From TrEMBL:
Ranges for domain Resolvase/invertase-type recombinase catalytic: 2-152
InterPro entries in UniProt: DNA_bind_recomb_sf (IPR038109), DNA_bind_recombinase_dom (IPR011109), Resolv_N (IPR006119), Resolvase-like_N_sf (IPR036162), SSR_resolvase (IPR050639), Zn_ribbon_recom_dom (IPR025827)
Gene Ontology molecular function: any one: DNA strand exchange activity
Name by which UniProt lists this protein: Recombinase family protein
Keywords, alphabetical: Coiled coil
Species annotation: Candidatus Ventrousia excrementavium
Keyword Coiled coil appears in the UniProt entry: yes
Domain named Recombinase: residues: 156-262
């Protein structure tokens, strides 16, 4: 009789060697029984309990049984064929129709009714084992999740996996890149602009590849960056170290939601100076620019809570555009003319210069790795290992070193270390801001304003410096028309 061997290993602690062992025992069994083996079908790292459609060679074997080239499918154990009683019965019936039967090389199953019962029992045990294994794996992964341990999958950009503790840790080189991406997107840069800039600077993804626009959606929505560990129904705040401040993360989510609902940016949008910075004090949603026409035909511009605009629960009144922008510019100018405060900001900027140049740190790290590679190649050459490949690799490393050194020089030229006098001079220019000029107003807001929350009776400002929070009541604002009637929605 002629037979084919079907061998399979799944990913549950089995390795490639198990295939060799299955084939060896099946071959020995065939020799003892006088069976001629005419072929092999092998599936690697494929589960027998689910996704049978992914077992390509198993299905090819079933199709090939139509050719009547073999009468036996020889397996090491019946669970190699299937761990599902339904699948086992289905495909055995298909083989039987073509005159083929399944034989186990290591399980003695008698012919007749008793053999059928035994075979059914073995298949049932295999299915039970598979279900139990799945439950154990799920239980183990859930326990891992509760302990904040990694459950597999890719490691997000900005983290490294500690193999001993199986926990994510902050990558000191790439975490600043993640923060930069979030801050730039929240400040108004497009994904295309950010991707292009990162690639021009030679920064790579965690897989060593160039950045693409398609990968940014997941990156900008990953809640691990605010320290949240999530696995199925397990959610642990603080389960991983945070990289991105929560307020910036929330602003990014709001901006992504806004961009999703409004695919085209109009000229009017560019005129709203507080876009992505103005928030509803009642519900916390971003307030977006809008306009309306009164019964007289006059055009009115205002900011409206995103929830109130979509009528999803908030009833916050709209805020007139010109009035709120004037208030924000006025409050920001008070910072600029505050001498002691600007001195403190100068001190902070002076200390931050070295911390902020993360590109330079990345380039210097890559240069160190390249120099180490060159040193290793030279050691190999001194040891007498001189081949065409080593010469070529050494030349590549030398060229890479030269390019990195040039990039480091260019980076230092583009990002010089400023003196206190230079920083003070730069900040002092804001005192001369023409508050009637739109571009200068925008520059002032972008530089100093982090977020503005508008309540019914007060406005809360958060500025871009440590401790930069300020609350003012509407009574303190002379000539306030915040509660004035707004255009219809």
């Amino acid at each position: 009789m002629k037979a084919v061997i079907y061998a399979r290993f799944s990913s549950d602690r089995q390795r490639e060697e198990s295939i060799e062992g299955q084939i060896r025992e099946c071959t020995e069994y065939a020799q003892r029984q006088g069976i001629t083996v005419v072929g092999e079908y092998i599936d690697r790292a494929k589960s027998a309990a689910k996704d049978i459609d992914k077992r390509e060679n198993f299905l090819r074997m079933i199709r090939d049984s139509n050719k009547h080239l073999f009468e036996i499918v020889l397996v090491w154990k019946l669970d190699r064929f299937s761990r599902s009683r339904y699948d086992s019965a289905h495909y055995k019936a298909a083989l039987k129709k073509n005159g083929v039967k399944v034989v186990s090389a290591t399980e003695h199953i008698a012919e007749g009714p008793e053999g059928i019962i035994l075979e059914s029992m073995l298949e049932g045990m295999a299915e039970y084992y598979s279900a139990e294994l799945s439950e154990k794996i799920h239980r183990g992964q859930r326990e891992n999740a509760l302990k904040g341990k990694n459950n597999g999958g890719g490691v997000p950009l900005g983290y490294v996996l500690n193999k001993e503790t199986q926990r994510l840790e902050v990558d000191p080189l790439m975490a600043p890149v993640v923060r930069e991406i979030y801050k730039r997107y929240a400040a108004g840069d497009t994904v295309r602009e950010i991707v292009g800039d990162l690639n021009r600077r030679g920064i790579k993804t965690s897989r060593g590849r160039a950045f693409t626009m398609s990968s940014f959606n997941a990156l900008l929505k990953n809640r691990k960056y605010i320290g949240e560990y999530r696995y199925q129904d397990v959610v642990i705040p603080g389960g991983v170290p945070a990289i991105v401040p929560e307020d910036i993360f929330n602003r990014v989510q709001a901006k992504m939601d806004k961009n999703k609902r409004a695919p085209a940016r109009t000229k009017a949008d560019d005129d709203f100076l507080l876009t992505t910075k103005l928030f509803c004090g009642k519900c916390g949603r971003m307030m977006v620019g809008d306009s309306g026409t009164s019964h007289t035909g006059a055009k009115h511009y205002y900011y409206k809570c995103g929830s109130a605009k979509r009528k999803t629960g908030c009833d916050k009144k709209a805020v007139k555009k010109q009035w709120i922008e004037d208030v924000v510019v006025q409050q920001t100018m008070q910072i600029v003319v505050d001498g002691p405060l600007m001195e403190r900001i100068t001190d902070r900027l002076l200390s931050l210069q070295g911390e902020e140049n993360h590109d330079l740190k990345l380039l210097e790290s890559r240069l160190a790795d390249t120099e180490k590679g060159i040193s290793n190649m030279l050691d190999a050459i001194q040891a007498g290992i001189i081949t065409a490949s080593t010469k070529q690799r050494l030349a590549e490393l030398e060229a890479e070193k030269e390019e990195l050194e040039q990039q480091i020089i260019e980076n230092r030229i583009q990002h010089p270390v400023l003196s206190r006098e230079q920083i003070s001079f730069f900040l002092d220019q804001f005192k001369r801001t023409d508050v009637t000029d739109k571009e200068q107003r925008q520059r002032l807001i972008d530089s100093f304003v982090n977020a503005v929350y508008v309540y019914e009776d007060k406005i809360v400002f958060t500025f871009n410096y440590k401790g930069g929070a300020k609350t003012i009541s509407l009574d303190d604002i002379q000539g306030s028309d915040l509660d004035a009637e707004c255009p219809p929605i």
